[in-house]
Design goal:
Elements: E1 3-7, E2 10-12, E3 18-25, E4 33-39, E5 46-51, E6 62-64, E7 72-77, E8 82-87, E9 96-103, E10 119-120, E11 124-128
Parallel strand pairs: 2-11
Antiparallel strand pairs: 1-3, 3-8, 4-5, 4-9, 5-6, 7-8, 9-10, 9-11
Length: 130
Amino acid sequence: QAQLVESGGGLVQPGGSLRLSCAASGFTMDYYAVGWFRQAPGKEREGVSCTSSSDTTSDGRTYYTDSVKGRFTIQRDKAKNTVYLTMNNLKPEDTAVYYCAAGGGSYYCSGNVLPKYDYRGQGTQVTVSS
């Protein structure tokens, strides 16, 4: 059964760091575009970052929403079939549930957003507070 499982969330002070993991099983993530998005209480879902699949002309290109550029990094680990979101210099406004999603075939990153996907994880809570 194909699925995505996120982990790595938690409580961190402003200025701290976390690394979120999005582990895939049942399919090879390298052939899928992968996006991270987040949703805070009372707010709309927001695309945080997206990385294109390695087998397209975009060849693993990465995209970020403006508010996280320079602070967040999306990376693939092919051997572990996992995509990471490393988050540095975290701010209270980064507090949200973070989800990863994977889209294959004709599903592509639209900038920092993955608008359509085949699989989505259950989410992991990130809380930035002193």
